Model the fold of this input.
Amino acid sequence: MFLTTARVRKKETVARNCFTLSLKEEKIASHCTPGQFVHVRLSMGYDPFLRRPFSVAAADPAEGVFRLLIQTVGEGTRLLQGIQEDQPLDCLGPLGSGFVPGEAPYFLVAGGIGAAPLLFLAQTLSKQNQPVRFYYGTASEAERVPLHAWLPATVEQIDATEDGSKGFSGRVTAALDRDILQGIRPGQIMACGPEAMLRELARLNATWKIPMQFSLEERMACATGACQGCAVEIAEEAGMINYLRVCREGPVFEAHKVVEFHAKASS
Amino acid sequence: MQKLQVELGSLVLKNPFMAASGTFGFGEEYANIMDLQALGALVVKGLTLKPQKGNKPPRVVETPAGMLNAIGLQNPGLDSFLARELPRLNQQEIPVIVNINGAEESDFVTLARELQDVPGILALELNVSCPNVKEGGMAFGTSPAVLSSLVEKVKRVCGIPLIVKLSPNVTDIGEMARAAERSGADILSLINTIKGMVIDTHTARPLLGNLTGGLSGPAIRPVAVRMVYEVFQATGLPLIGMGGVMSLQDALEFFMAGASAVAVGAGNFVAPDTIPRLIADLQSYLERKGMNSPAVLTGLAHGSR
Done:
């Protein structure tokens, strides 16, 4: 983990309410792994007060550049959208525990902005010649980030929109369920997206029984593990249920250990 | 070089800047971005006899110029602290103050007895002001009689400096300070967080899992400075001031109001290098002003008393 100043190399709007930042910072670019995040200070004033966590969406150690994919949802991200090329950005990172290799083939399931950590993962797995399918769901076509600019040609992309404006018509989880029922089966699922999507994956996996990892989101203060603010209930070995830190033991957890999705999925 | 050393009674710190309890864990988290030996003291995460699971999430929420937290004293308990955390802190020669908590008087007394002669612990901080636990916590710090009784019993078994951390959630903080002083407190630290609430307007329910939380950050600084000012007049005890310190300017307000040392809390989350920066800035401030010790600043706002 480094407390460092990155410089904005490039800012680009890529979809409705969605932009990318390419940031020059060698230490973060060369140390981060898929699933990790950086904690970004948005203002030198006190409003907004806290930093914001963003998953690393790509990293190029040779260039010393990493990329963030950001959706403008509130005051903080709107402020960040106003940053100009060449300006400094105070970053703490890389932070957290990322995705753990599993069994190929890998199916990555992204809901909306949840694509960010999975893009980095897809790039890394492809470099290791692992077969990857990338399921990408959004509400409509207007929200879609042009992932082909990020994804290696070997990665097969499956599109889903809830309004049917692009690809499979319906939820991305239904697209995945259709494929698995037809015998297109992964060795490992890695997912990131809205809570409802993760909950549905947990429910469907009661039938599929495939190893699955989730990248979770929680309100954070320090993002280093010190404050214990971003707690999530995790069922550990020997039936113990404890609060673990999304910023430290996570953000990636094995899906079957995340208590909240199980309790409600089975009821 | 000016000497930054300060003395709070028999507690000697190499500089007046401390990390506030609950904002620096057990030091491990920030070890690779700063030299923890540079801290005046590290007040470790609130400790209880037995491990505590903590409160239901969400536990933190941002507020204007601050945040609410309701962690609920999640900690590994006394045995694990002594076996795992303290040896590591001692090995790195980090000045440690242990913040102790309990549901009953006997919990505090047992913790104080077990910890007071353990090498490497400079002082104990009695947490009678946590707004986020159902048992004990703030209940010990909002009635002078209850506070007196607790401080007296803990003091009896505690051979090292005893700090009492005061709650701002009282009508007259001077009265609480006097009660702590009468019962044997060596040092007072203030303020703990101010009890608050945020409503989630989508669900029409309080946002935090614990419903209420403790407010910290620059939003509470004027309240904290006022309380340090009042307690300085109410007692003769050395004071540790805290509440929204982000810069030397903020720390100077606390010194001038009457603090001998200053703790940084939520500021660590926003700028993890706050304490090293304060140390360097105080150093150059004292040189510029021709002052030979931070102690010169303490209580300046009161004029000649």
About this structure: The radius of gyration of chain B is 18 Å. The longest strand of chain B covers residues 41-47. Helices of chain B lie at 78-91, 105-115, 144-157, 173-182, 221-234, 248-257, 267-270, 274-289. The mean pLDDT of chain B is 94.
